[in-house]
From TrEMBL:
It comes from Mythimna separata (Oriental armyworm). Residues 301-377 form the B5 domain. Coiled coil: none annotated. PANTHER family: PHENYLALANINE--TRNA LIGASE BETA SUBUNIT (PTHR10947:SF0), PHENYLALANYL-TRNA SYNTHETASE BETA CHAIN AND LEUCINE-RICH REPEAT-CONTAINING PROTEIN 47 (PTHR10947). This is Phenylalanine--tRNA ligase beta subunit. Its main location: cytoplasm. NCBIfam families: pheT_arch. Belongs to the phenylalanyl-tRNA synthetase beta subunit family. Type 2 subfamily. Its EC number is 6.1.1.20. Keywords: Aminoacyl-tRNA synthetase, ATP-binding, Cytoplasm, Ligase, Magnesium, Metal-binding, Nucleotide-binding, Protein biosynthesis. It catalyses: tRNA(Phe) + L-phenylalanine + ATP = L-phenylalanyl-tRNA(Phe) + AMP + diphosphate + H(+). The keyword Metal-binding applies. GO terms for biological process: phenylalanyl-tRNA aminoacylation.
Length: 586
């Protein structure tokens, strides 16, 4: 769920009244949003970068508001204010008009673009008047869209340009990197594409996007009629056509690997900021020519009509309202509605509401506008007996008993590094049935844990100053690759306990194992209960490791940890460990 930061005073000025924090939080809840935090820019910087980072930064109050991931129209102050005012009945939904296209603003795609980013759309906003706040909002909306629907620019990359500094028609091409040379945004000299890629390889924000095109034989580039480079998507715009506070006419282009997403992104940007045009809510279309010479007009800004039944809406939501009332509720959500003679509702879905894809979305908006807290509670029509999941019930019971045995519960990360489950335990990562994260954020979170033991050992290492002995346990899930499972992996609930003290031996954790088996009513028997069998495991001291067998089937391991494992986890005191699968007992 994306979070936007808006200045409280600017928001209240746009809404036409002030609210207390509690009042605005209530308004957000009614509108289906959540006021996440009341803070300042200084406090945010201090939280992210430390106490020294807030010097000279504004202390103006900021509201951080959680926005549903599919409500792209609420990702900026302009869309949020319009949405709330329409919801409160203080404003009619904006009506957008499309201005006739001018051939000089057309965008032409070459066949080479099919090799890397095959789609493009474009639009023009005329007579725009920017203020510092609206300019910042314009830039911030692009960033929010890049991170959200654009999937970090892999699906769509947005470029905005001062139309008065460039000459159309424009060409979207794909060229070998060595043939691309221009002055990038905020740079002092021209550089080739390889030089720019090298320059931005250490850039805090842009380095994450380089991999999108780095290995391609051609890089996308947009030029004007005179060969001036507008942008090299999805990396950087050109400095020549950069937007400023003095910009009056804006050319917007979106290159994409997903045409539908590009259309949504373009519709969102122009619908939000066309309010600043000299002709309010007017957008000029552009002809976008495909490589075969055919063209389409963008932005589409198309509306469509959905039909729903009043009876179904009442039944699904649990209310009893007439057609006029429900039509009014939909209108509060920017969904203009007309009623036919048979009480069928014909709902007009505007170009700002790309999140509405099914009648269910309309029912949800009716419920939001009606107010969830006003919907009467009613008994379920299906009689069922609720109960705790058996494995969770067993987990809670065992937690209590482990605590009674003198062990302290730990809750460790589900994700860990490859070394934690492999090399530190004396095995190769190829031999570990781990589920790997495709795009890990840090080296500490590369795989889903296959054992609970590494997490407890890292907890011990972080608490070496505590008096000995240290006795920790955890009962949680691990994830193992399983080709027979629908998802290719399965969860397994395990219990792990570690004893760290001056000495190590079976007796320190064997007693806990015996106590658990006694409570589970499993006798010490080779065939009908549980027993131990000597085994070898690289994580344990040779000759001091045993497999825990339940009715002849191995469910875990108990023993004294190897000094090499202790050293890998930066531990100096000997440790005994127990880890078993508890699902066979359910």
């Amino acid at each position: 769920m994306p979070t936007i930061s808006v200045k409280r005073d600017s928001l209240f000025a746009a809404l036409g009244r002030t609210y207390s924090d509690e009042e605005f939080q209530h308004l957000c809840f009614e509108f289906g949003l959540e006021l996440d935090e009341v803070t300042t820019e200084k406090q945010m910087l201090m939280k992210e970068q430390g106490d020294h980072a807030g010097a000279g930064v504004s202390e103006e109050i900021l509201y951080r508001i959680d926005i549903p991931a599919n409500r792209y129209d609420l990702l900026c102050l302009e869309g949020l204010v319009d949405g709330i005012l329409v919801f409160q009945g203080k404003k009619a939904p904006p009506q957008y008009t499309l201005k006739k296209t001018e051939d000089c603003h057309s965008l032409h795609l070459t066949p080479a673009t099919a090799l890397i980013r095959p789609y493009a759309v474009a639009a023009v906003l005329k007579g725009v008047t920017f203020t510092k706040e609206s300019y910042d909002s314009f830039i911030d909306l692009q960033d929010k869209l890049h991170q959200n629907i654009c999937r970090k620019r892999t699906l769509v990359a947005i470029g905005t340009h001062d139309l008065d500094t460039i000459k159309g028609p424009f060409v979207y091409d794909a060229l070998p990197p060595s043939e691309i040379k221009f002055k990038a945004l905020n740079q002092q000299k021209e550089m080739t594409a390889p030089e720019l890629m090298e320059l931005y390889s250490t850039h805090a924000q842009l380095k994450q996007y380089l991999g999108i095109i780095r290995d391609s034989p051609v890089y996308p580039v947009i030029k004007d009629k005179n060969g001036v480079v507008l942008s090299m998507p999805p990396i950087i715009n050109g400095d020549h056509s950069k937007i400023t506070l003095d910009t009056k006419n804006v050319f917007i282009e979106c290159t994409a690997t997903d045409l539908t997403k590009a259309i949504v992104v373009l519709d969102t940007i122009v619908s939000m900021f066309s309010k600043y045009c000299s002709n309010e809510y007017e957008v000029e279309q552009c002809k976008v020519f495909a490589a075969d010479g055919t063209y389409e007009l963008y932005p589409e800004m198309s509306s469509r009509e959905e039909t729903i039944s009043v009876d179904k809406a009442n039944s699904y939501i649990g209310i009893n309202e007439d057609a006029d009332t429900i039509a009014g509720l939909l209108s509060r959500m920017c969904l203009s509605t007309r009623i036919s003679r048979d009480d069928t509702l014909h709902v007009r879905v505007p170009p700002t509401r790309h999140d509405v894809i099914h009648a269910c979305d309309l029912y949800e908006d009716i419920a939001i506008a009606y107010g969830y807290n006003r919907i009467a509670r009613r008994p379920a029509k299906v009689v069922t007996t609720g109960g705790q999941d058996p494995v969770n019930k067993l987990t809670e019971q065992l937690r209590q008993e482990c605590a009674h045995a003198g062990y302290t519960e730990a809750l460790t990360f589900t994700l860990c590094s490859r070394d934690d489950v492999a090399s530190k335990l004396g095995v190769k990562i190829e031999d570990v049935p781990a589920a790997h994260i495709s795009n890990p954020k840090t080296l500490e979170f590369q795989v889903v844990r296959t054992l609970l033991l590494p997490g407890l050992l890292k907890t011990l290492a972080a608490n070496k100053k505590m008096p000995l002995p240290l006795k920790l346990f955890e009962i949680s899930d691990v994830v193992l690759q399983d080709k027979s499972a629908e998802t290719g992996a399965r969860n397994e609930r395990r219990l792990c306990a570690v004893h760290c003290g001056r000495a190590a031996g079976f007796q320190f954790v064997h007693g806990l194992l015996d106590r658990i088996m006694l409570l589970l009513r499993e006798p010490w028997h080779k065939d009908t209960g549980y027993c131990l069998q000597q085994c070898e495991d690289p994580a344990y001291f040779p000759g001091r490791c045993a497999a825990v067998l339940l009715r002849g089937r191995r469910i875990g391991t108990v023993g004294v940890l190897s000094p090499a494992v202790l050293g890998a986890f930066d531990l100096t005191n000997p440790c005994s460990a127990l880890e078993i699968n508890i699902q066979p007992f359910v």
